[in-house]
Automatic annotation (TrEMBL), chains A, B:
Residues 46-314 form the Calcineurin-like phosphoesterase domain. It comes from Eucalyptus globulus (Tasmanian blue gum). Residues 1-27 form the signal peptide. It holds the Pfam family Metallophos. This is Calcineurin-like phosphoesterase domain-containing protein. It comes from the Eukaryota. Coiled coil: none annotated.
Length: 376, 376
């Protein structure tokens, strides 16, 4: 069958496609990678909200598991409505995969994204140690009365599809990207495998996409299915990539990953949060990566790198300087995971003229505290 | 094309099929389960060799990994040629799945079975804690010089098939059964999931399949992808099954699993192997299951249960009595896994008239030691 269309409807169709296709609304950086930029409104600050350690999907076979996920959605909704950020970073431990007895943990990942997606806010994610982990069977399930009703398998007398091994990083990331036009996440270079969430995003004014305001670097700090570490290969990738796209260190760079590096142990206050650190809770010791393979030396020697942001420790929310570099914790956002400290989210605000990077913590009860200038 | 065959060759073909089809040479127990019996030659002892903790597949990216697998094949070959057993039990930790960076660990499982298969000896297996476990990435692979060449993925720039999560129990067992007519293993009742290797095999004289000499029970003691435990459900299954097929406890029963129960801790000698225990090495403490959910009480109260056989502790090879029940270790058979104690295999010999269960350990250097009468 042949369909005849005049030129005008075809042009409208084509324009509609251009407008609606994923990421077509975000200006692309011309030339080599990175191709996709985050759009900054000229003359306005660019605001980022960090959602750390949401831990969706815990104990879905009990009442309290699903209830705390609802509470976590409320925290995120409050922060998004109070701050109206331009961008959200999911800073790892989005789900507690080792606590999810179903084959497809993306269900919970999607729940965690939903407050951001429903508000049309672009976002990106990095992996934490709980995102890609096999299910840990509770020992008590092996006593009487046995395994509670779960999604498989006894009812249909087949257990071949019941792996409960968690979704792997690669599949989680594919699902996020393919199902969400607002996702700016990327699955990173293949030679950095088994780490996945390694990529860079420029923030560029919509009227001048060739002059980024800042570069945001995301690194996978491992854990779950492999050791908690940023590899030598990842460090070398950062070194090469940053020199390639920002050779004169003119553009400021911010770094995001989940598990604190050993450098955090060095700057951690022994008690309270005395100056020059800024924060409100210092309730536990730093739980750092298993090894330091070079990334911190590279960051310390690069003048354009202003700050590193991590999650992982729910009882820490400080920023401390390490020479010219700020080492910052986010704030425990989710009701999932250990700890009962009040929930909130770290906010980062980047101003281009005059240049500044400010940060503060927005709490679930609307309070704001721990303002710090990371560009000083 | 039509092929015409006379009746005589067709009859020969049919008879050949009857003789060669899997398990057709083993008489089936008539009536309800268990359908398959191990054939005992009337008037001869029935001899079982236990191959414990072979740990195939360790560090395949080095020289010493494959070399020790060759050594393990040599141990098994020596034992099989010296003892010519009627049956072999692979008593768990056949592979070290957490050390195998390939998707299909059945390759190494098959290597471990090969000395038995090549001699045409029937066998069965139970799972150990190392058989179904995800790959544990060595931390040093994340420093320079990075990940050694493995079976995937960088060469073809695709890592979607590189899960390295180990084969699950179910798939391992399916592979073993489907690929080996000599395998008497079974994947067990679906309602005992996630444990898999739970089944019973009668040993029956070929001239009287209705009068078993003994029942061999195999239980999955967990570990790897779920806790190291024999569940309440497994205990109840044993209780029900044994009452059903051996209601008057007339037929002796032997029990095989991998990880010692807590009862082993109670009978373990503090040093050496003093009587009434029998054995040659007592070099470490018992590494027992994480909980005791009832199986030991059931076994202790059943007069037909004569002995339990486990592996797991490479430095222990004793049998100790626990009231009327013998708790026995096998002997570390493989060059894989920890420990450098000389390798060997526990042998069990069952005589019907007069009834006896004898056991000893056959070493790689042909020595025999630790003879014990388990029917006394």
């Amino acid at each position: 069958m042949t369909v005849l269309l005049s030129a005008a409807p075809l042009a409208i169709l084509f324009l509609t496609f251009l407008l609606l296709r994923p990421q077509s609304i975000w200006p692309a950086t011309i030339g080599s990678d990175p191709q996709v930029s985050l759009p900054a409104r000229p003359g306005y600050p660019f605001k980022i909200a960090l959602f750390a350690d949401l831990h969706f999907g815990e104990n879905a076979w009990t009442d309290w598991g699903p209830r705390q996920d609802v509470s976590s959605v409320n925290v995120m909704s409050t922060v998004l409505d109070d701050e109206t950020p331009d961008f959200v970073v999911y800073l790892g431990d989005v789900i507690t995969a080792n606590n999810i007895p179903i084959a497809n943990a993306s269900l919970y990942w999607d729940q965690a994204l939903s407050p951001t997606i429903s508000r049309g806010i672009p976002f990106a994610s990095v992996f934490g140690n709980h995102d890609d982990a096999p299910f840990e069977w509770p020992l008590e399930w092996f006593s009487a009365p046995g395994i509670p009703p779960v999604h498989c398998p006894v009812a249909n007398s087949s257990f071949s599809d019941c792996s409960f091994r968690g979704i792997q990083r690669l599949q989680l990331m594919k699902n996020e990207i393919e199902q969400n036009a607002q996702s700016f996440s990327s699955k990173g270079p293949v030679d950095l495998w088994p780490s996945i969430s390694n990529y860079v995003l420029p923030i560029s004014p919509t009227n001048n996409s060739r002059s980024p305001v800042a570069y945001l670097y995301f690194l996978d700090s491992g854990g779950g299915s492999y050791p908690e570490v940023i590899s030598n290969a990842q460090s070398e990738w950062f070194k090469t990539r940053s020199l390639e796209i920002n050779p004169d260190s003119r553009v400021p760079e911010l770094i995001f990953w989940h598990i604190p590096s050993k450098a955090y142990e060095k700057v951690a206050p022994s008690s309270g949060v005395p100056k020059p650190c800024v924060g409100s809770i210092n309730k536990e010791t730093v739980a750092s990566q298993k090894a330091e393979t070079g990334i911190m030396d590279i960051l310390a020697n690069r003048t354009s790198v202003k700050a590193v942001f991590v999650g992982h420790n729910h009882g820490l929310d400080w920023c401390c300087p390490d020479n010219k570099l700020w080492l910052c914790y986010a704030r425990h956002t989710g009701y999932g995971g250990y700890g009962t400290w009040a929930r909130g989210a770290r906010i980062i605000e980047i101003n281009q003229h005059p240049f500044s990077i400010k940060s503060w913590i927005r709490m679930e009860n609307h309070d704001v505290h721990s303002q710090v200038d990371l560009s000083s």
